[in-house]
Automatic annotation (TrEMBL):
Pathway: One-carbon metabolism; tetrahydrofolate interconversion. It catalyses: (6R)-5,10-methylene-5,6,7,8-tetrahydrofolate + NADP(+) = (6R)-5,10-methenyltetrahydrofolate + NADPH. Gene3D superfamilies: Leucine Dehydrogenase, chain A, domain 1 (3.40.50.10860), NAD(P)-binding Rossmann-like Domain (3.40.50.720). This is Bifunctional protein FolD 1, mitochondrial-like. It comes from Senna tora. The keyword Disulfide bond does not apply. GO terms for molecular function: methenyltetrahydrofolate cyclohydrolase activity; methylenetetrahydrofolate dehydrogenase (NADP+) activity. Residues 165-317 form the Tetrahydrofolate dehydrogenase/cyclohydrolase NAD(P)-binding domain. GO terms for biological process: photorespiration; tetrahydrofolate interconversion.
């Protein structure tokens, strides 16, 4: 299910997680090593592709407006593509662009046979119909996995989407690589967005976990989260998940990437007064959880590695190599 490029079950190269003796801090589930390993394999395959048929994968990125966080994410994606040998193309549109302009750009990319993957960076400005735009991306180039064909096939047992969204795929990868068994576990996902929470819950079901969803209308979320063997947070609110929301020994995956202002005393030029924080209160969670992903350096790099892997898969389909 993870795609032609990645085995369904990894042989873990990381030390398997062990139960945490009481009073000890959680194991930190870093994402950089995993991302590096995936990138190496992707780069290797692209090298073989280039030597064999003289072609390489190409990814088109569409950015509307000038949100600082979106610019950072796009920058990280471009850098990663460059590292593994994926060609890139960026279309930048102004904040107030008409919907038709954006659709025309996407349609042009759909028709261009040299392009294998298309991503439209989210969130989009309010006046644009996100669902309509996601549906305009050809499902065969939908390396984000947000097209209803791909999301629908992910939801239905026995069907195979062409692409699985990168962050959820990265989340399963993170757990499998650390030897965490998912089958039969109680998983709770906070957030139900198409980028994060929803496809994560669908993937957990595919891996035979029992899944509960927590969202903005959930009453007493901490009652539900405290039953989770595996907890995923994808909300976008710094520190919303407190230590007392967790079951002792839980495995916690923090997908939140929130830019928070730091106080002026520790202001430094490099960070420009901001730092990245997850949705989970790290200092509290580390005392209760058995394992926890850090932010930055946890899910972010693995998510980007998955985008590379999806783009390679797409090129392989296009070149008839699978
Ligand atoms: N690490 C990574 O690779 C990735 C990180 N992200 C990060 O994840 C975060 C979320 O992004 P995204 O999924 O796009 O966000 P969205 O805003 O699309 O979704 C947020 C979700 O959180 C829910 N929510 C809001 N408030 C609460 C609350 N008080 N209690 C419980 N649930 C709540 C919403 O519920 P409702 O549906 O009811 O409104 C919604 O489902 C961001 O920080 C983003 O940067 C995203 C993707 C990848
Ligand atoms: N069409 C679309 N596809 C996405 O996959 C998508 C999106 N829109 N919109 C926003 C979210 C968020 N997301 C992240 C990607 C990388 C990091 C990442 O690289 N994080 C680094 C640090 C980030 C930094 O350097 O500031 C880390 O956690 O170590 C984070 C979050 C993808 N998303």
């Amino acid at each position: 299910l993870l795609g032609p490029n990645l085995p369904d079950i990894w042989v873990s190269f990381l030390p398997l997680l062990r139960a945490k003796p009481n009073g000890h801090n959680a194991a930190i589930l870093g994402g950089k090593l995993i991302a590096q390993d995936i990138k190496l394999k992707v780069a290797e395959e692209i090298g073989r592709m280039k030597n064999g048929i003289g072609k390489i994968p190409k990814l088109a990125l569409v950015l509307v407006g000038d949100r600082k966080d979106s610019q950072t994410f796009i920058h990280n994606k471009l850098k990663a593509c460059d590292q593994v040998g994926i060609e890139t193309l960026v279309a930048q549109l102004p904040e107030n662009c008409a919907e038709k302009e954006l659709i025309d750009v996407v349609t042009g990319f759909n028709k261009d046979p040299t392009i294998h993957g298309i991503i439209v960076q989210l969130p989009l400005p309010q006046h644009l119909d996100e669902e309509y735009i996601m549906s305009s991306v050809s499902p065969e180039k939908d390396v984000d996995g947000f097209h209803p064909h791909n999301m629908g096939n992910l939801a239905m047992r026995g069907r195979k989407p062409l692409f699985i969204p990168c962050a959820p795929k990265g989340c399963i990868e993170m757990l499998l690589r650390h030897g965490v068994e998912i089958k039969g576990k109680r998983a709770v996902v906070i957030g139900r967005s198409k980028i994060g929470g929803l496809p994560t819950s669908l993937l957990f079901q595919r891996h035979h976990a029992t899944v509960s969803m927590v969202h903005a209308f959930t009453k007493n979320p901490e009652q539900i989260t405290s039953e989770a063997d595996i907890l995923v947070a994808d909300v976008g609110m710094a520190n919303i998940v407190r230590g007392n929301w967790l079951k002792q020994g839980a495995i916690v995956i923090d997908m939140g990437t929130n830019q928070v202002k730091i106080n002026d005393e520790i202001y430094d030029q490099r960070s420009q007064g901001f730092q990245i924080t997850g949705d989970v209160c790290y200092e509290e969670a580390i005392k209760v959880a058995s394992a926890l992903t850090p932010v930055p350096g946890g899910m972010g790099p693995v998510t980007i590695a998955m985008l590379l892997s999806n783009t390679l898969d797409s090129a392989k389909y296009a070149f008839g190599l699978v």
